Amino acid sequence: LKSATVQTTPYEGQKPGTSGLRKKVKVFTQKNYTENFVQCILDANGSAISGSLLVVGGDGRYYCKEAVEIIARICAANGVAKLLVGQNGILSTPAVSSLIRHNKAYGGIILTASHNPGGPDNDFGIKFNCSNGGPAPDGVTDKIFQLSTAIKEYKIVEDLKIDISKIGTNCYEVDGKPFVVEVIDSVENYVNHMKEIFDFGKLHDFVSGKKTGTPLKARIDSMNGVTGSYVREIFLNCLGATPDSVVHTTPLEDFGGLHPDPNLTYAKDLVDTVAKGDYDIGAAFDGDGDRNMIIGRNAFFVTPSDSLAVIAHYLECIPYFRKNGIQGFARSMPTASAVDLVGQKLGKEVFEVPTGWKYFGNLMDAGRLCLCGEESFGTGSNHIREKDGVWAVLAWLSIMEHTGKSIEDILKNHWSIYGRNYFTRYDYEECELEPCNQMISTMEKTITDPAFKGREFSSLGKTYKVKVADNFGYTDPVDKSVASKQGLRVVFEDGSRIVMRLSGTGSSGATVRMYIDSYEKDNVLGKASEMLKPLINIALEISDLQKFTGRTAPTVIT
Ligand code: VG1
Ligand code: CO
Description:
Keywords: Cytoplasm, Isomerase, Magnesium, Metal-binding, Phosphoprotein. By secondary structure, the protein is of the alpha/beta class.
């Protein structure tokens, strides 16, 4: 086979966001659009690409298979030595991270728009991960974007054909050099990795009912996303769960029309079913398998911020942490600070990073971080460099097995020790971009005015006094790289916080995210929506959100 050089012209807007480039499928299918971006990923890595091993796969959404073929042809022409490709192009995001690490690959290309809907009229995405298995840092994504604004040509092997439906090794000769595509089982490596981390023997006895006499009553909902194949193997075959414990386990190109985002709005079917039925645990994942939602009996909701703190508290019941030790913890800035309290008690470092998993990687590589999470249903550890939905459910099952308690009792016990961070997030999706930019810049001016500090805001009989307010900036403790303007935050005297930022994962318009966090030492059994009402009113007042967006209510509340 021979490579060819194709002339092309740049496309605007190939700027990776919080987690890769995400656009409508129709944008990616424009002539040379995908080709340009893939060539820029390779070019951003310079000569290291020649002779390299890359992992390629995605969440199975519409256009994944076509994209795998394009990537293979371009990689072949650019001197990549070998690709590991998931069968049918299927690999969850955590599975790619694990494969990169286990195979000491140079990196990986992940095809997903995560929790965004799929199908011909919806979203697609491409993300590059580095040799540590984690999302490329800002320095690399900035370079990819710069290259995309000036690209003139890409290299491709037009005649390269691979059957990615068959497991096996395909060898080619390209420009006189060998090029190999190995199509691998999508789940095997990941499942083996989970077996090393958790005590599958104990979990089997707990889930199958050998320990307690009755099988665990679970409803694990893959929302027609990529986790289906992983969930069937792990929960049914390895842990002996009853067949009806898992639902929506066939990955579909359009996720069956579902919005594969595990939260109270888009996983409503799960929440309603668990609320009505007889279940000990309900769980859901997003399209690419890195997010998780955990609910208990009667659909008792575990906020992701609390989930992180509880796992931190019980880390020692997981063999991986007994073996490797417990380093520090971390959370993204908008995430409620429940885990900080566990860190304090255990004498561990706790880091606060900008939104997006890429900021955790350096700390993990430096041996300072073993567990981290985000309020956006992301939880994970240093076993890989992505958040990991199935891992989170296995962690929760380990805690349930270890304590013998229900999810609700585990949370109530946690709050009685540490106090409770009430938390909610309001999303205003698909707003007009310009007014949202104006809202953020106006609010930034307001809150960074020196007169703002010390101001008092009152609503529904509660008064909050401003302690500090800024646009969050972060200096990486390891490589000292700086990320500025990562979200507006107003912190009050009692530690309560309002955070406001624009989403970096949408494919059209703007999504405003408003995060409200309030800590109570003793009053821990209230209703979050009631407890947070005053602060929500104050946030709407300070931001003037209604005026700028024209919205009187959010599209999603969690
Ligand atoms: C959102 C979440 C963020 C998460 C990111 C990627 O980003 O808020 O916490 O890391 O999605 O998650 P944004 O910029 O839209 O707020 V996923 O599951 O898309 O890989
Ligand atoms: Co995701």
